[in-house]
Specification:
Blueprint (H helix, E strand, L loop, with lengths): L1 E10 L2 E7 L4 E5 L6 H13 L13 H4 L10 E8 L2 E8 L6 E6 L4 E3 L15 H6 L2 E3 L9 H14 L7 H17 L3 H20 L5 H74 L3 H15 L1 H53 L6 H42 L22 H133 L5 E3 L5 E4 L4 E3 L5 H20 L6 E4 L7 H14 L4 E5 L3 H9 L4 E4 H4 L2
Parallel strand pairs: 3-13, 3-14, 8-12, 12-13
Antiparallel strand pairs: 1-2, 1-4, 4-5, 5-6, 6-7, 9-10, 10-11
Helix pairs in contact: 4-11, 5-11, 6-11, 7-11, 8-9, 9-10, 10-11, 11-12, 13-14
Amino acid sequence: MIIRELNLTHFGKFQNMDIELGPRMNIIYGSNEAGKSTVHAFIHAMLFGARRMRGRAAASDMYSRYQPWDNKTSYEGTLIFEYEGRRYRLYRNFYREEQSVHLVDLAPGREIDLPGGVISDFIPGLTEENFKNTVSISQMKTPMDDQFSLSLQSYAANMSMTGTQNLHLGRALDYLKQEKRKLARSSAADSIAELTEKIRELETDLGGGAAGGVGALTSALAAAQSRQKSLAEQQARCQVSEGMLLQQEMQLKQELAQIKETQAKLAGEASALRAAAREAGGGERSSGCAEPQARRAAESQARVESPGRGKSEWQGRQEPRERGESEWQSRSNSEASGSFKLGIAVVIISILAAIMAIFFKGRLPSLVLYSIFAICVLGLIVGILAGLRAFRSSYRSVERARESSDAWPDTKDNMDDIPDYAWGDPETGKENTENDRLQKSLQQEARISRSLEENARKIRRLSEQKAELASAAAQQNREYEELRRQLEKQNWEQEKRNELNNRLEDYREALESARAAQKQINQELDCVQTAQDIIEALSSEIHDNFGTQLNASVEKTMQEITGSSRRFSLSRDFKISVDNSRDYVDMDRLSKGTTDQLYLSLRLNAAQLLFGRRSMPLILDDTFAYYDDDRLKALLQWLMDHYTGQILLLTCHHREENILEALNFDYNYVNLDSTQM
């Protein structure tokens, strides 16, 4: 490859700068800041592009460094070169918004496709890495990159095994290292440690909590609910009894009011009779009828003196009456007893049916169960009403008997207690009748008053019983609520334990998956490490063969340049050591000029290995700053005699020009200072 022309349309400080080059030696002279490094960078950018970096590196990358000073959007250039006897033009637009590259074969005018946009797509082996580490040399940059040794080893391995350049040991090792980093980032070790810690914490929490107690609390709650129901039933019975007593009290008060009304009526009638009697008595005295009055007084005196006769007469009238009342009372008591027994039977049957329905509620349909409950409630109501009716009938019979006994004392024991007015007038009987009725009403009033007092006592007892039941029910409700709260708390704790158990199972499954993934990653890491070990072993083997040959070539080149024979040792990473007859010492102990000569020899021999007969342009950008005149003369002599390719020597000195003139070598001279005037 020979570069014929450089057209720096807009690149760095240059605008429309054209440089023509010769096929062999070219001296591009320029003072400091004349643009020599810019020309060197232009050749590099035209061949491989000007990459734009990211982040902080973008401030000093090639793209930013060599943007045109006046117009940053116009960023382009052209390079014309010869390759294998044909001339080509390479155009490139570097502006990031309009990047493009075109390669044209000038003879037919046909454009050649560059898929990757770099010259290596057209010239095999001319990669950016090979170019930078062989034929492109800048001042103080004669050493090669560390990874370039792997490129040479890859090239040697490919050429010896396949005859191609497809295999690249450096890229293979880089790929394996990237895979290792990727696998290390995806490692599940941290996840396994985290899951293990979470499982340990959950197992501790589950081990410290209570596992039972729900069944016992449920049983206690059911017992408390049963006691609540029993107390409610007792309260209901007390309420019913109190209602019955209040109703009975109301009836007694109504009867008492009627009796008082009757008493008032009887009192009025008695007053009327006494008034009539007084009037009648006054008439008899005025008409001289004193005999009837005397007769009534005598009879009254006789009754006082002989009370037995009146008593016997009363007993005669009373005996039939007592027999009738006894028969009626017996019949009433029999009917009341039958009704009461029937009511009790209905109540018992209803309660038993309700209990059986509750016992079999899980087996009966809801409709049947509700029907049974409705019938039981109806039976309870009917039974209670029948019992109340029988109770009232019996109570009235007893009261009637008591009234009879109260009105007329026992003839055997208390006949003397009967007042005289009770016997009445045997002729008229009017006074006796009114007195009997009045006495009977007074006795009924006393009886009802006693009944009311008894009723009040019963109501007070029921009120006290109700208060006790209410207090017991309140206490039972508090106990029930406490048990229910404990049960809810226990159920909540049980749900929490279940949730923790589920989470524990999830963590255990995740841990198993993480361990399986880690096992897979470890296997892949082992495979990657094995591949890396194999490649490194292959690299060592290649270096033992290839490095020995390259080392011999470098020794030969150094001998041709310097005229003296010295032994060198080339390491795997292209570090050179010098044999000082006792051992090999690092080349840093040599002079800078000798070091530059060694690396230049290594680069030239590596270029010959990579490119062979396809010689590439050798670009030397102020490379000889540490060379003395003799060393520089020897090197230029060797280059003109042994290097068959094009040479571009960029310098700010005239030594190279004078030496070439003295050696009588032809060269092409370019003065950057004069071209910019």
